[in-house]
Amino acid sequence: MKSKRSMKKVFIRTFGCQMNEYDSERMLALLKGEYIPCREPKEADLILVNTCSVRKKAEEKVYGLVGRLKHLKRTRPEVIIGVCGCVAQQEGEQLLKRLPHVDLVLGPQAVYRLPEALEKIARGKGPVVDTRFHKDFRQPLILPELNGDRPVKAFVTIMQGCDNFCTYCVVPYTRGREISRPPEDILAEVECLVRQGVREITLLGQNVNSYGRKEKGFPSFAELLREVASVPGLWRLRFTTSHPKDLDEDLMRCFAEVPELCEHLHLPVQAGSNRVLKRMHRRYTREEYLSRVKKLREISPEIALTTDIIVGFPGETEEDFEQTLTLLEEVRFDEIFSFKYSNRPLARSTAFEDKVPEEEKARRLARVHALQDRITREINESYLGKVVEVLVEGKSPGNPALWTGRTRTNHVVNFSGPHGLKGKLVRVLIEDCGQHSLRGRVENSQ
Ligand code: 5AD
Ligand code: SF4
């Protein structure tokens, strides 16, 4: 390894989902020994932008940021600028036409080939475009090494890609077919993180419920959860994202039977109308979704649910939209992530003709927000006076006099308490709440 002084600097900016955050960490791990991370693009020898193309807005942000790096490249032509992730996959060579100052275009599967790509550029063979998909792509096992201010929680990818082809979604095209990681790699990574002090793991995948189904001899997702939960020293386990059609009872029972598994499930519903769900190719009905929620709550009464909603999908009428509102009322999610429908390259719905006007989508989104804000507030208020278990993640970014962490139900709690609580499980009395967090004081630490 080189001395810190002689090492080059890398600036990395990540957009989009947790899969991208995970991939960015892997890229930094691959660069270890050659590069150290820095905080500003202007200090960097290598600038990586890990991109998201799931919605139009996310993609526009990427073009904005990479576009602004042009002047930097003009003053320091030796700086290497790389665009990675989903926009890179989607655009490939085209991206170089629009952004000619870019040296490197790496799709999500190719981020693991970053060192090879950089070597090519060093040999004057740039720009490099690598968006190859491999049918038998195996994510290499890169055991994470945590330094400095060690995190209390971490992500571990268990699968890549998606085979569902919802008609609005670009993911199957940018991340490729579903491929599950071998359970021994997942366990090795979890054990390595826990040895370094991580106490909470979130298992990641576009559709974790179908883990292992395509592979011979792999455990089911529920079996994998039980195995991961039994790693000594791991206190909390979560996973995301689940597809409602693949949520079976075996998995639901884990919420009651696996003590480490936290009582929170992100279960994207997208819409409340069967007609819209069908055109989205979601492969469940409103009634099926609701009956799964009912079952889940019978098994785990405390479970908190969150979801994703798209408003203004092509052909969504006012009546269809009202069905989304009634579904939100019926389920009472703790939190939702709601989006205006946007056309995505390659997604089938882009060719649907009955698009909803932009102003109408905005109006529907505002109605969804107003309704959900009330429900979230009511749920938050129901915590007042209760004592909850919080895993302490560190100082609250908004107020360093307070600690911050989450309940098992994934609510953020900011609270006062004694020194040295980071990484501990504490009991917090909830005294106040806002729209996005709870506030309280520590009762006693364990
Ligand atoms: N338009 C709007 N929202 C979308 N999402 C995915 N594709 C689109 C699109 N074309 C949303 C879905 C998904 C979340 C990650 O992003 O709600 O669950
Ligand atoms: Fe996209 Fe549907 Fe796959 Fe989720 S399940 S990543 S929405 S295609």
How would you describe the overall organization of this protein?
The longest helix is centred in the last third of the chain and has 24 residues, at 358-381. The radius of gyration is 23 Å and the shape is globular. It has three domains: 4-130, Rossmann fold, CATH 3.40.50; 153-381, tm_1862 like domain (pyruvate-formate lyase- activating enzyme); 387-445, Nucleic acid-binding proteins (OB fold (Dihydrolipoamide Acetyltransferase, E2P)). The chain has helices spanning 18-31, 56-68, 70-75, 86-91, 94-98, 114-122, 171-174, 183-195, 221-229, 249-257, 274-279, 286-299, 318-331, 358-381, and strands spanning 8-14, 35-37, 46-51, 80-85, 104-106, 128-130, 153-157, 159-160, 179-180, 200-204, 236-240, 264-266, 304-311, 335-340, 387-396, 399-406, 412-416, 425-433, 438-445. It is built from 14 helices and 19 strands. It has 446 residues and is an alpha/beta fold. The mean pLDDT is 94. The structure holds 5'-deoxyadenosine and iron/sulfur cluster. Iron/sulfur cluster is lined by residues 162, 164-166, 169, 171-172, 206-207, 243.
CATH architecture of the largest domain: Alpha-Beta Horseshoe
Count of helix runs: 14
Taking strands numbered 1, 2, ... along the chain, how are they ordered across the largest sheet?
2-1-3-4-5-6
What's the CATH H-level homologous superfamily of the largest domain?
A: tm_1862 like domain
